[in-house]
# Entry
Amino acid sequence: MEIGQQGYRYVLDADISGFFDNLSHTAVMRELSDVIADGNILQLVEKFLKAGVMEGGRVRPTRVGTPQGGVVSPLLANIALNVLDWHLHNHGFRFVRYADDFVVLCKTEHEAKEALALVEHLLADQLGLALSPEKTKISRFHKGFTFLGFDIKSRFVRMRAKSLENFKTKVREITRRSHNLDADMITRLNRVIRGTANYFATPWSHCGDTFRSLDRWIRMRLRCMKFKRKSQVDNVRVRLKHFKHMDLLSLSDIRTLRVAG
# Structure
């Protein structure tokens, strides 16, 4: 890959421990006040942070953290971690961050250790956060690391095993043999197929073989639904054109269109 060719040999794969649960309210409001001058909005956000959570029928006050899954929590996370972005940038590090997931690319192991120390100090001093010792590590780029659902190595980028199993779990739920093989079911299945393909089918990912295998597996599941059993004989009784008439989407076809486009 291009990054490896540019001399980046090490990766700091960092994980913030309990980010949404432990994020300092003071840090959020400090960073937010740097970009918003409207006091009414600031007061509204502060009320949201301190609104509390329902546990066992009672409201528990929240002195730290922002509700994970809350409508504005991702935005507040990005605003709070903006200080980390600038800190790494000002020290000359190359990095990628999405919400609280981030990696720092380094050319030497010493540089990666410097990045680790820099991140640890900033998180503790300014955001009241800490890195997870179990999930934070320095890796060689050619050995690979995981990021946002991908397994990334110097020679390929693929769906990670957990992402693959999550997709299969969703498909299994929709294609149970007790369910009807009808248009409504195909519509629900297509949503899962389209979402997965659109996310993982990028010009730089290597998902072709995986997608073809998953397409065959999905068709096998649908044949099992139709005949209420799993049989090699049944697999040749429902042709591909039948699935096309049902408007079943294909991971491989979506990938081809996206890469070509």
User: Anything to note?
Assistant: Strands lie at 10-15, 53-55, 58-60, 94-98, 101-106, 137-140, 145-147, 150-152, 157-159.
